[in-house]
Amino acid sequence: xxxxxxxxxxxxxxxxxxxxxxxxxxxxxxxxxxxxxxxxxxxxxxxxxxxxxxxxxxxxxxxxxxxxxxxxxxxxxxxxxxxxxxxxxxxxxxxxxxxxxxxxxxxxxxxxxxxxxxxxxxxxxxxxxxxxxxxxxxxxxxxxxxxxxxxxxxxxxxxxxxxxxxxxxxxxxxxxxxxxxxxxxxxxxxxxxxxxxxxxxxxxxxxxxxxxxxxxxxxxxxxxxxxxxxxxxxxxxxxxxxxxxxxxxxxxxxxxxxxxxxxxxxxxxxxxxxxxxxxxxxxxxxxx
Length: 288
Hints:
By secondary structure, the chain is an alpha/beta fold. It has ten helices and ten strands.
């Protein structure tokens, strides 16, 4: 595994955004990895080293309130536009002005907002199980668990059972304990007393509960901001958030659009699955 270095950027409000840098010494365009709503940079701990080994520096961000980034923001600051402002603070600190984005779920929404806010910064975009229209079934499922008060769990085995209870339907073929323990270690953190808790500030759920809080009401203009660059859409074949119809309309609307489905996976693919991995490799090679 490639070794990463850990860094932080401090925003004007004093909140620190943590990020991992997987350094590669080449002139290839860097890749920025953006995680989903309740996740963090550990989601990319398999993907990022592979990309870095191909000669691209990778930046994997812990969006504020998650992972090693600061918690404690006012609830209204937990929104994608603020996250994108933090992101550009990170990129400015790193001297990155042109990049490829890989965004899972909320990270894909951040990618679209970044393209709209700063035309020309993106060289390409991978949208992982996200599009400009979201299925209410998936939104309701997410609203049913995000930010719900939960006491810390006794140990990692209990944490693995808890994340499996929430995410099991998205990975019906994953029945082994090792998969769910690894899943827990990416989505939870260990407290000093050995107990384990979810690795995000529960307050991130507050804006999500407001009308249109999950996403802007009309995201097609944001998707259209990606028109100048190639887009790869990755969809979990049993996703309850991104429908095949929306992906088809994205393809019809975008001049350089590629799509792939990951069989027997819901929201959202881990990007380690063979179809996703091969599609990302080919997509990145096409941008050189």
